[in-house]
Every structure is written in C-alpha cells, then in structure tokens.
C-alpha cells in the first residue's frame, strides 16, 4: 500500500517489453518532443528502451501523484543531470530519482526528504577474476569496506558484497544531486547484516540519512537513500522549495516503514499517460 502521500517505488522489467519499431515510436510520442533526442542517441535497442522507460516513469509518476496534465509537466535538469520539477507546490520538496541497469528501470519519489535510487546488476566479470574486477574500484572504497568485501566468502558472495556498497554510494550521491566527480571514497557504510545501515562522511557519522537495500531478483539489487534537503549540492538546492525540515519531520520520514517496489509493465505506463 502506498500510504504516505508522494512516496512511490515503481519498477519495470524491460525484458518483458519487446516492442515493434512502431510500438516503440508510439510510446516515445507520449513524451514531450525535447525528451526524444536523448533516447534516439543510443545505438543499442536495450539502451534505447531503458532511456525511454526511464522518462515514461518520470512523466507517469508526476501525472499520477500530482495530477498535473501531461502537457503541463515541466521536468528540468540541473547541470549535473538531476531531474526536478518546476513549479511544484503540492509537497514541500517533492523529488524523484530514476535508475536503470540490467533488466530493470526504476523510480523512487519522496515529498520532503531527498531521495536517491540505484539499481545494480550482479554480473560476473568477463576475462578477469572477481578480485581483479573489484580491485579496479578499490580507490572508491574505504579500508573498512574493502576488508568486509574480500572477507565475504565465495567469489559470488564477494561480488554481491561489493555491489551492495557500490549501490549505496551511488544512491547517496544521486540523492544529493552531485555529479560523477564526487569522491566515493569519502563515504563509508556500516550495517548490521545489511539492516540498520548508517553512513560516515569524511569519517563523521551522520543521523540525517537513511538507507535501504532491496533484492529485486537473484541478479539485481536496488538501494534507496533518503536524507536532509540541506545536504543537496548548490545547483539542486536552488530547485527545492525549502531546505528547512524539522527534526520531527526528518525522524518520521527516516523511521517510516519502507515501501516495496510496485512492478509496472510498459503497457500500463503508456495507458496511464494516454
């Protein structure tokens, strides 16, 4: 049940959608014309599908939650690429974030706190061992995280452990609206069997953020980061209605039970937009 107004967790399995060229073009035609070049620039069909479904999710969710007619929805992007709504007065800080990798495209929204979503596909490395693969990312991990990863067990467990940390770091950076240059090594995650997850930023623990991990299937994970609006980067902060959140509001949001993801089909999305 979607109990809290403005909170949504939607996901689409793109492998279930095999559109003809005409069906693909019909779905793309539901979007504003300025959104279509960003889809067409992809060469591979799966990449085009992910780009299209990501935008369909954004417009459908805004239409669904805020009851704004589709032709009046104005989604802008910060210089770092973070999407935001112009002129949204229904909630103090309605914001949303999308992610896609592997079979899934997803979106998460929140009415007050910043929200970040990241989806990862736990694919086995090609042409190198798991240790060699994760070594490529060692500069983005702290010593504590690296030790937790390499001691996780089998190569499959090590890989999954790495992706859990990676997923959380990406969700946090995306929630803030930061760009690709943000130093992921500055973030260190602690947890109790991947519940009660906390973050240390530059060595300091913060109580202004909450994190959750979801297992979508055997090969895909998703993470949600929720945090205080004052931690948004400057360009994104300007897009928010307010960065003032009371301790009570923040605590209530971070302590509330987490919504499960609702699985949508592309057909359902397009029907909701027609």
Automatic annotation (TrEMBL):
The keyword Cell membrane does not apply. Keywords: Transferase. GO terms for molecular function: holo-[acyl-carrier-protein] synthase activity. The keyword Transferase applies. Residues 115-217 form the 4'-phosphopantetheinyl transferase domain. Its EC number is 2.7.8.7. Residues 16-111 form the 4'-phosphopantetheinyl transferase N-terminal domain. It holds the Pfam family ACPS. This is holo-[acyl-carrier-protein] synthase. It comes from Urochloa decumbens. The lineage of its organism: Eukaryota, Viridiplantae, Streptophyta, Embryophyta, Tracheophyta.
């Amino acid at each position: 049940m979607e109990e809290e107004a403005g909170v949504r967790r939607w996901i689409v399995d793109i492998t279930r959608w095999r559109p003809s060229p005409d069906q693909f073009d019909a779905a793309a035609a539901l979007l504003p014309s300025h959104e279509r070049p960003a889809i067409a620039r992809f060469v591979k069909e799966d990449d085009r599908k992910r780009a299209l479904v990501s935008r369909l999710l954004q417009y459908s969710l805004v239409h669904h939650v805020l009851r704004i007619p589709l032709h009046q929805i104005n989604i802008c992007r910060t210089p770092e690429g973070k999407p935001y709504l112009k002129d949204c007065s229904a909630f103090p800080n309605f914001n949303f974030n999308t992610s896609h990798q592997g079979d899934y495209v997803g979106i998460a929204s929140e009415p007050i706190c910043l929200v970040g979503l990241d989806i990862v596909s736990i694919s086995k490395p090609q042409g190198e061992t798991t240790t060699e693969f994760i070594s490529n990312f060692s500069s983005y991990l702290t010593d504590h995280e690296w030790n937790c990863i390499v001691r996780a067990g089998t190569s499959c467990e090590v890989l999954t452990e790495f992706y859990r940390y990676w997923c959380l770091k990406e969700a946090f950076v995306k929630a803030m609206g930061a760009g690709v240059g943000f130093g992921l090594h500055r973030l260190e995650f602690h947890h109790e069997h991947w519940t009660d997850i906390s973050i240390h930023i530059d060595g300091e623990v913060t109580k202004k953020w909450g994190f959750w991990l979801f297992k979508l299937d055997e090969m895909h994970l998703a993470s949600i980061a929720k945090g205080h609006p004052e931690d948004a980067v400057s360009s994104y902060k300007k897009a928010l209605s307010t960065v003032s959140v009371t301790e009570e509001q923040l605590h209530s949001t971070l302590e509330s039970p987490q919504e499960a993801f609702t699985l949508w089909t592309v057909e359902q999305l397009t029907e909701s937009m027609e």
